[in-house]
Structures are given as structure tokens and as C-alpha cells.
Amino acid sequence: MGRPRAFDTDQAVTAAAALFAAHGYEGTSVDDLVTATGVHRGSLYKVFGSKRSLHLAALRAHLDREIGPAVAAVAALTDPAQALTAAIASYDGGPAAGLLLLAAVERAPHDPEVAALVTDAVTALEDALRPSHGEAAPHLASTVLGARLRLRAQPTAPKEH
Amino acid sequence: MARIAIDREHGLLTVEFQGLDKLWTLKSRLEIPLTHVRGATHDPGIAREPKGIRVGGTHLPGVITAGRFRRDGERVFWQVKNPGKAIVIELADAETYDRLVVEVDDPRAAVALIDRSISHS
Hints:
The complex is a heterodimer of chains A (161) and B (121). Chain A has 161 residues and is mostly helical. Chain A has one domain: Tetracycline Repressor, domain 2 (Orthogonal Bundle). Chain A has helices spanning 9-23, 30-37, 41-48, 51-75, 80-90, 99-107, 112-133, 137-153. In chain A, 40% of the residues are buried. Chain B is mainly β and 121 residues long. Helix content of chain B is 15%, strand content 47%. Chain B contains two helices and nine strands. Chain B has helices at 21-25, 107-119; strands spanning 2-7, 12-17, 29-33, 37-42, 53-60, 64-71, 74-80, 86-91, 99-103. In chain B, the strands form two sheets. A six-stranded mixed β-sheet of chain B has the order 4-8-9-7-6-5. The longest helix of chain B is centred in the last third of the chain and has 13 residues, at 107-119. The chains are: A mainly alpha (161), B mainly beta (121). Chain B: This is Bacterial Pleckstrin homology domain-containing protein.
């Protein structure tokens, strides 16, 4: 039924992730998603089912593409200062920088699946800091999250999205 | 206005129409197995899009969209007077409709109710 899917699902998820990271979940309307992905509203619903499912797909992609590699790079460092600097520079970064932080604040209290993904991402950060910081890794992970939050709050030139 | 409820005993999502809306939509009630519900989204913008061809029901553009419509091969059930309160309920292939677009009193609460019900079923 319906027309064949004429769009790249990965591209749509990437565009949605950047939008959610810039405006949050509630701040991103289906109109915004239709415009940014270039995908017809009917096709978006047909493929993803709901805005919530698209947000979950975007968060999972962000974990796979950005947080996974960033954390692996940190885990390879044994020098404590280097590991901490690398984590602060790269964790929850990339084209959808801040998506994890926003999801943790806005969606995790309402959505158990988001909460589980946030827990996975934070646990991965703790594990990555263990070779360099040992027992202090959970504490340092909180420092990284706090530093990312402060970076996001810094005034910058307004981003177009 | 549609009233959304979950019948946990029978695993159903029920959508009831009251008063004149029964007349506009030619339906008083829809029952969908929860396993066929893919998700719900608050989507005020959908009412601005072309509805397609009316198969049954009432369409007074700008006033009310109610009943069965077909667009791009998809079967969509509409019941919307106030687009600001429209929610989209996406259904699995096995259903009579691909999508329901209905107006509810509290979109946030209706969407949360449906999301909760399908992630635990």
C-alpha cells in the first residue's frame, strides 16, 4: 500500500537528531521535522510511527555514531588528564551535540526507553574513564557531564536550524 | 472531540465520539487492538495538509474534517474541528485505517496514555 519509500531513513534520522538537539523534544514540531527531513508527513508516520519513535531512533543513532566512538577513544587513553580532556571535548558531541543531555533532562523522566539509553551512555562513559581514573571514574563522568552542560550554556553565535 | 480510553481487559484502544460528532464521522466508536497501535503524536500542523479524497463523512474546509479519507493510497480517519488539539494515531497494516487524526481535550495526556499502553503491552 502507498507509494514506495523515496527517502533515505538514515538521512531523515540524522536531520531529526540535529533538530531535537537544537530545540528539544517539545520544541520540535512535526512541521519542523517535515521541513528539515524533506520527507512527507505521511511517510514520516508510516516509517517511524510517531514523533516519540523518531526521537528514540535519533537518540540511538547518536549513541552509535557519536557517543560510542568518543567513549572508545577515551578508553584507549591511560593518562588521567588527557582522558578527562578528551571526554569533555568529545562526549555527546558531533552534529547532534547535546542530544543526550537534553534527552536526559527533558524526556528521561517521562520515557523509560529514553531513561535506559541515557543510563547506557553514562555507564559507557564511566567504563571508558576507568583505565585512567580507576575508582574515581563515576565521579569524573559527572564532571564531564557538568562540563558539557556548561559548554552548552556558553553564549555563542545563534545557530541556524 | 474524541474520547480516548484503554480497555486493558481486552487490550483495546477505544475512540468514542460524542453528540453531533457521531453524525459527522458516521461513527460512534472505533476499537483498535493495542498491538496494532504504533504510536501517537500531537500534530497541530497536519490539518493544513491536503486531506485527499473523502470516502465517507463530512468535510467543510476550515470548519470540520470528519470521516474516512484516502490519500496516496493511505486510508485516514479524521475528526478535527480545532487543529490545535489534533493527535495522530498511527496504526499497523492490518487495520481498516492506516492513520487516525482526531481532536482530543488534552493532547499531551492522550499521547502519554497511548504511549504508556503500547510500551507495556
